[in-house]
Amino acid sequence: MAHELVAEVWRGEFLESVHHGSVVALNGDGEQVLAVGRPQDTTYPRSSNKPIQALAMLRHGLDLDGELLALACASHSGEDFHVAGVGRVLARAGLTYDDLRCTPDLPLGERARVAHLASGRGPEPRYMNCSGKHAAMLATCVAAGWPTDSYLDPEHPLQLAVRDALEELAGEPVGAVGVDGCGAPLFGISLVGLARAFGALASAAPGTVEHRVATAMRSHPEWVGGTGRDVTALMRGIPGAVAKDGAEGVYAIGLPDGSAVACKIADGSSRARAVVLVAALRRLGVRAPEELATFPVLGHGRQVGAVRPAVALAG
């Protein structure tokens, strides 16, 4: 994959490091306004796939809306309200935390993780950032009459439905199949396809299941991310935006007019992904929260520099 320089790490006036990657920005007609690197190549969207996974679940009987549907789309921080929400989703389906098959983990959010460790607790599936998705997957299986013990199998009816929904919205076939960090099947598509899918979600007509997903995420961005998370700030700061971050430097966002951006940082770093996404949004004429335009570089606890977009993203 031929990535290009997309971000620079400046410590004072010294260029200390660089990040390479790929990014694509589509306008409301699906035309490429910006293409850097190889956005047409297959990549794993990681957790950026979650809104499409939730769409597939709604199509097959999942009965969630509002904050609990947003939680099904989340890589949550593991704050108390997130974990309690996971329990609510499971209880509605007659299940408990013991039915979760996601990887035991500590809370993703720094504050929640510190409080969790201070209380003497260790890793558990409920605190894993994907537990909302897993609870929703189990609830879907109950609603559809599918087995719950094998819901992580790529050939399970639930996962086949997810794959179909992803291929439909992305407008392309899945190019790779793997296992995500939480244990769920992972379907690879291009960044172009990922942007196309987010544009479709964000511009969906009222009354559609796509619109249900978008409305839940827009209305409850703190359930999609959490306190201090950039994905939450993006959806709060850009009217109508539907955004989702993913591991290994992936990010995607769709807007109500159907325009969208998707990016991948080649080294998997998370510090440059929002910077690159915001720079690409500006090429579409969209103003994102200014605090996300750069990422602070610290020295002795204070900001002494910043991660900035590379020249390739300037317009």
UniProtKB/TrEMBL annotation:
It holds the Pfam family Asparaginase_II. It comes from the Bacteria. InterPro entries: Asparaginase_II. PANTHER family: L-ASPARAGINASE, PUTATIVE (AFU_ORTHOLOGUE AFUA_3G11890)-RELATED. This is Asparaginase. It comes from Saccharothrix coeruleofusca. The lineage of its organism: Bacteria, Bacillati, Actinomycetota, Actinomycetes, Pseudonocardiales.
